[in-house]
Amino acid sequence: MTTPSPQSGSEIFAAIVPAPFGAVGIRIADGRLRELVYLPPHYHEKAPQDHLAEQAARQLERYFTEPDFRFDLPLAPAGTDFQRRVWAAIGAIPRGAVRTYGDLARELRSAPRAVGQACGANWFPLVVPCHRVTAAGGLGGFANQDDETGFHLGVKRWLLAHERVDGYR
């Protein structure tokens, strides 16, 4: 049996940027950002393959040093009408603040579970800061994951600490 290399799967990314929690894969399609993917630490940096991947990589690096940095990237169309409404509400949450799934559900006249599913379907994490949405009683899930000791919740904890949000370690 062949063991996949640590870089197995990296060919789908136009760049891979090191991050304090691992890495972020950047996917580009038709001159727009198609997806950002949180990657575990075994992924190595991959030089940007085009101008937009380079721009996205620079903006990610800047966010990792300046939590107030605001992304300015052309995003590919994604999501349902409801998901886009949730993502717009998430985009309005300022750095240093969180809102609960229930808060957003009331605002959008929906259900907390539907808001959580829209968060998990976010193609542009960090640009659309879904890590700023938590459960009423704690951290909640992240990227459709809820394993307390798992990689994705570790990323959410790091992002909230980076943005100076207390209480979610």
Automatic annotation (TrEMBL):
Entries under InterPro entries matching the protein: MethylDNA_cys_MeTrfase_DNA-bd, MethylDNA_cys_MeTrfase_DNAb, MGMT_N_sf, WH-like_DNA-bd_sf
GO BP term (any one): DNA repair
GO molecular function: methylated-DNA-[protein]-cysteine S-methyltransferase activity
Record-annotated Methylated-DNA-[protein]-cysteine S-methyltransferase DNA binding domain positions: 81-165
Record keywords, A-Z: DNA damage, Methyltransferase, Transferase
CDD domains, per database record: ATase (cd06445)
Pfam families: DNA_binding_1
Descriptive protein name: Methylated-DNA-[protein]-cysteine S-methyltransferase
